[in-house]
Amino acid sequence: MRTPLIAGNWKMNKTVEQARALVAEMLPGLQAVPSVERVLCPPFTALMPISAMLVGTEIGLGAQNMHWEAQGAFTGEISPGMVKEFCQYVILGHSERRTYFGETDQTVNKKVHAALANQLIPIVCVGETLEENEAGRTAEVVARQVCDGLKDVSKDQAAKLVIAYEPVWAIGTGRAASGEVANRVLAEIIRPALAGLFDTPTAQKIRILYGGSVTAANAQEFFGQPEIDGALVGGASLKPAEFVNIAIAAA
Ligand code: PEP
């Protein structure tokens, strides 16, 4: 059995003061949700203050990105060791990083190795663009992102990984995939790719989330699907009641 996981990707939103207010509002409701792993991913500047608020709770903290090197002349970057000071998780290869910041399957792979070497749980994002979807290239693109992004990861380490299937056309658009379509991508593309990379028992242990315009209203459609183990939530994670209700739907 895979434990459901709900992660909120705040993207580039919230000052420290705003972040504290948001967490204070959602924390009681979020803490009351049983048997769902719950993770908040605020911007870097809010990681330290929010980590202090989460002490003594079972709510995890994640960064939205990181560099793969331990230290050095990489102006503007954050190292795995710095992330690890506050976080247990790190989102890697989000489509916005791939689209706007030149992230590739190869840089994602370096980051995955760095995260695992630092005992961070990587939430590795994959997903096809609208153009790729319409050209019938979803299987090819998503399988390549999984295989190249996870290249040379050991079987032991793989079981800790989390994959987020986020069709780019569904992110922030209000146009979510249907639960059935998303489940099919997980069942027919992602889990078989994981089984090919590792083996079937390991592939069965890896949690795969859906992401893309998840709301409290449509969450059940996704969580009712056998392959979908939770959600990576963007916009709705900034609305306390909405995010709590999405976590409740996953329980
Ligand atoms: C995301 O940023 O990972 C995401 C899924 O965004 P949204 O829920 O807003 O579509």
Characterise the protein shown here.
Keywords: Cytoplasm, Gluconeogenesis, Glycolysis, Isomerase. InterPro entries: Aldolase_TIM (IPR013785), TIM_sf (IPR035990), TrioseP_Isoase_bac/euk (IPR022896), Triosephosphate_isomerase (IPR000652), Triosephosphate_isomerase_AS (IPR020861). This is Triosephosphate isomerase. This protein has about 250 residues and is of the alpha/beta class. It has a single domain (about 10-250), classed as Aldolase class I (TIM Barrel). About 45% of the residues lie in helices and about 15% in strands. It is built from 12 helices and 8 strands. The chain has an 8-stranded parallel β-barrel with strand order 1-2-3-4-5-6-7-8, surrounded by 5 helices. The longest helix is centred in the last third of the chain and has 19 residues, at about 180-195. The two termini are about 15 Å apart. Phosphoenolpyruvate binds near residues 166, 172, 234, 235 and 236.
Task: Map the helices and strands.
Elements: E1 5-9, H1 16-31, E2 37-41, H2 44-54, E3 60-63, H3 80-84, E4 89-92, H4 95-100, H5 105-117, E5 121-126, H6 130-134, H7 138-149, H8 155-158, E6 162-165, H9 179-197, H10 200-205, E7 207-211, H11 219-223, E8 230-233, H12 240-250
Parallel strand pairs: 1-2, 1-8, 2-3, 3-4, 4-5, 5-6, 6-7, 7-8
Helix pairs in contact: 1-2, 1-12, 5-7, 7-9
CATH class: Alpha Beta
Number of helices: 12
User: Can you give the helix content as a percent range?
Assistant: 40-55%
Q: Largest beta sheet: what is the strand line-up?
A: 1-2-3-4-5-6-7-8
What bound compounds does this protein have?
Answer: phosphoenolpyruvate
Mean pLDDT: 97
Biggest pleated-sheet summary: 8 strands, parallel, barrel
Spatial shape: globular
Beta-strand proportion: 5-15%
Distance between the termini: 13 Å
- In total, the number of strands is 8
Instruction: Let me know the CATH homologous superfamily.
Output: Aldolase class I
Q: Briefly note the structural class of the backbone.
A: alpha/beta
- Which oligomeric state applies? single chain
CATH topology heading: TIM Barrel
Pathway: Carbohydrate biosynthesis; gluconeogenesis; Carbohydrate degradation; glycolysis; D-glyceraldehyde 3-phosphate from glycerone phosphate: step 1/1
Pfam families: TIM (PF00121)
Organism: Bellilinea caldifistulae
Subcellular location: Cytoplasm
